[in-house]
Fold these 2 entries.
Entry 1:
Amino acid sequence: MIEAFALLLLCQLAGEILSHGFGLPMPGPVVGLLLLFAGLLIAQRFAAFDAHTINDTALGRATGGLLQHLSLLFVPAGVGVINHLGLINSYGPVLFLALLVSTALSLAVTALVFTWMKRWQSARPAS
């Protein structure tokens, strides 16, 4: 389990270094996530796991545990919102509209990526 968390943190660190080093318009954790995804695709070719058995690995168990308690990660953000109530009162409607539009865009992009991944996975030959 420690190795899995170390791998996640190393991917995030590499993403931060690449993002800041090359001035990428994406945050470091997103770049790290892409690095982890690429690494898993490469490892899938050489290791004896596939998309269905990844949950049985240490990395699958570690990420599953993180996802189960994902709501706890929003507590600091909630406290930050309370600290800026004056700004929310001033710009509330604009913030609400921005949240609504960004949520709709996120859902649309997620659906498109899911559809693309499902087609890509169906087109791959079974191993």
Entry 2:
Amino acid sequence: MVPSHSCALGAAGEDAAAAWLAQQGYQLLARNVRTRYGEIDLVVRSGTVVVFVEVKSRTGARFGHPGEAVAATKQRRLARLASAYLLAHGLGGCATRFDVIAVRLGRDGHVFGIEHIPDAFQAGE
């Protein structure tokens, strides 16, 4: 099966976000973690904090700012995903955080900008 253009752009955005986080000193723990609740784009560690990262990529402003795409329903789903990940990896006692990374891309996958929103939402919200 040939991946769609939007899937390819999403993967390019995740690649850019992972590279940017590595440059900032984050340690990549996992990528595209799938559980019965869905998928987590990136799981990284910053010191003693396990950070769950939702990556939103856009080629234009037609659908709004990428960071706005993480609505309350998605936040709740990501919190369930994070709990499942922590339990499965014996990390239940670790501090956690939910970040959003918005990646602006050209149609060819060229990265125009990355905006990192640390602590974008809380698990209980």
